[in-house]
Amino acid sequence: MEQHECPKCKQSFFTAIIHAGATIRCPYCSFEIIAAGREKRSGVRARVAKSCILSAGNESITAKVIDICERGIGILVERGIPPAMEANTFRVVVEDFELDANAMLAWKAGFDGGSTRAGLRFV
After folding, report:
1. CATH fold of the domain at 46-122
2. Which of 29, 94, 102, 119 is geometrically suited to a Cys-Cys bond with 52, CB 3.0 to 4.6 A?
3. Percent of the chain at pLDDT exceeding 90
């Protein structure tokens, strides 16, 4: 058995062992997830549920930190990532971790309702 967390509804569920590239459907919201192959991260990641602030110039937004590792963080933004932050370096502050670092957008995925899941790489 393998445990998964749906990136859309955040519910945890189990599936039988599957191969990389297989499609998994969340039993709670029917969101389709492509099963990952080998973990691409070089470091260990920790799942968290903390707030963070992303800022670039005069623009700031609040996001939820989903996971963190030594090279970056995964976030969930309720209203999407502003265009000014998509191609530029911006500031990430997670007060609970005393983290204040520069980051760049590594990837993003939008969901119905306007929320965005994204990976940020520390620079």
Report:
1. Thrombin, subunit H (2.40.10)
2. 94
3. 25
